[in-house]
Fold this protein.
Amino acid sequence: MKFHWDDGQTYCRCTITPKVRVRTYAWGGGEEPVWISSVGFIRVRYVIETCTTAYEGHIYGTVSKEPPRSFATMQEAKTYLEEQSLIGLTVKRLGM
């Protein structure tokens, strides 16, 4: 699996290739298989009180239920998002 980053000024989106098929909850109840390529994003935020930049790693719910976390650098946020995406997708593929 390869991670691709679409860097922006306020958001950096993370996608994967090839697409992965996982089971997710459907609106009508039950589960259905879906193909996903987007795994999450990083929100870049300037904190006025401390004059610093914060990086928040967000993972999509179809990938993992991990809550968002803040980091001091972009690289730490990207590493977190990639690691948690791999763990979340592995757990979903195993059906746990």
User: Anything to note?
Assistant: The chain has a mean pLDDT of 89. The chain has one domain: 2-94. The helical segments are 74-94.
